[in-house]
């Protein structure tokens, strides 16, 4: 498996793991931990989560499972409030700061490797939202900054404030409306992390091979709650 170096110093394999499905109603915590440990055994060293996944429990599970000094890059996200059936962007700087501090505590890391703005809040200037993440970087809470569900124009506006090392948008074999953003990230060496890489289970792992071939900056993060699916996804 190829590697990619994100932000100049985070070298990871190009197949990551989306942890979202490890926790939640009906999920067994021990099973979630077992799947995550197996993912690491299989060579996965990039794990994606968010403060809003199971209201923090997803990060807690990761923090309880992955040692603070294990060579695993953990990327988390903040700024998207989980109201059950409804999610709303919330990008007020003080909220983003609080959420990043809570994420760091749950993940049990001295510093968050990659902190991604989960959604742009249209009610708050983008410069204020990215400015809050830059302040977290300056304060040593966050190593690198990324964005999620953004346009080329938003990426460029954010890059004028601080380096943007990753973009996490919805993209897969049949949902290619983001081609322009993929090409932009490729040109600028920004890691592109497609979420729903398997179109939430519609596609098979061949879709992962297609993504890996699509651009050298693509790092898919397929999610699964099953050991057999995990092992299948890792045999690319
Ligand atoms: N930035 C954002 O806004 C955003 C939004 C959503 C998700 N994400 C991130 O993206 C990650 C992936 O997204 P996702 O989980 O929604 O979508 P996905 O990875 O496209 O699909 C996951 C679905 O595919 C199934 N699956 C996985 N491997 C399979 C296999 N080998 N054979 C058959 N089915 C398989 C899983 O079911 P089983 O559990 O039964 O295997 C699950 O239902 C999440 O974990 C999260 O970290 C980010």
From TrEMBL:
Concerning SUPFAM superfamilies, the annotation shows: NAD(P)-linked oxidoreductase
Domain NADP-dependent oxidoreductase, by residue range, is 14-204
Q: Which UniProt keywords apply?
A: Oxidoreductase
Pfam families listed in its UniProt record: Aldo_ket_red
Q: Which CDD domains match?
A: AKR_AKR13B1
Q: Which InterPro entries does the UniProt record give?
A: Aldo-Keto_reductase (IPR050791), NAD(P)_OxRdtase_dom_sf (IPR036812), NADP_OxRdtase_dom (IPR023210)
Q: Under what name is this protein listed?
A: Oxidoreductase
Q: Which organism is it from?
A: Asanoa iriomotensis
